[in-house]
Amino acid sequence: MFEQINEKKQQLDSKRPLPKYTVQSLREKLFLEWTYNSNAIEGNTLTLQETKVVLEGITVGGKTLREHLEIINHQKAIQYVEEIVQTQESLSEWQIKNLHRLVLKGIDDAYAGVYRNQQVFISGAVHTPPSPVHIPEQMEKLMQWYKEEAQQLHPVERGAMLHALFVGIHPFIDGNGRTSHLLLNLELMKSGYPPVIIRVENRLAYYSALDQAHTTHEYHAFIQLVVKEVEASLGLYLSAVTMT
């Protein structure tokens, strides 16, 4: 499953250090698309161009304050992901809560970075997240899995599994989807991969693969979906550095 990814990653690594301004422009492109798609999947109606404008500090008429905050907050959360990658800190519940706090800042401060105390249901999904009383225990198990079994996995599989397991627990009232995307890319970026974009046009396949994983504990389809997006991001980087 990972042969092509490994080959592309080796090709990219062989070209390091990558041209400074090429990397900078790729980073800006991917971070904008990541912010747009991650929010669009969750129902934000700002277009890609409107997202870019909001990040430049301009208000878009006819859009809600929440939609503006979702864009600004997500960009700050990405910056936090970059900080964690640079300092090489190991993943912790504290980091996850901090990421979520950034995602919901100014939107729902009472629940920002706080595990839910109510039962929730995922619209359109068969899977029902665990009762709130089980969340601390489930999150503790997730972190234990991450420290032990997950370290034996390929980085792409580890990131995909972390994303899927986290969403299955659904530990927060809101913002779980955005937080899970941040965790996926945090894991990839730690291992030298570019961030991946789960695109809004692939939303149906994304939700279907996640629901299958949560109801059958069969994660292959979801991992394969992430593999495809990793290949796309690596391909983008390789085409850019080959042109320079």
Automatic annotation (TrEMBL):
Pfam family, one: Fic
PROSITE patterns cross-referenced by the UniProt entry: FIDO (PS51459)
SUPFAM superfamilies: Fic-like
InterPro entries listed in its UniProt record: Fido, Fido-like_dom_sf, Fido_containing
Sequence ranges assigned to domain Fido in this UniProt record: 91-228
Name this polypeptide is given: Fic family protein
Source species of the chain: Chryseomicrobium palamuruense
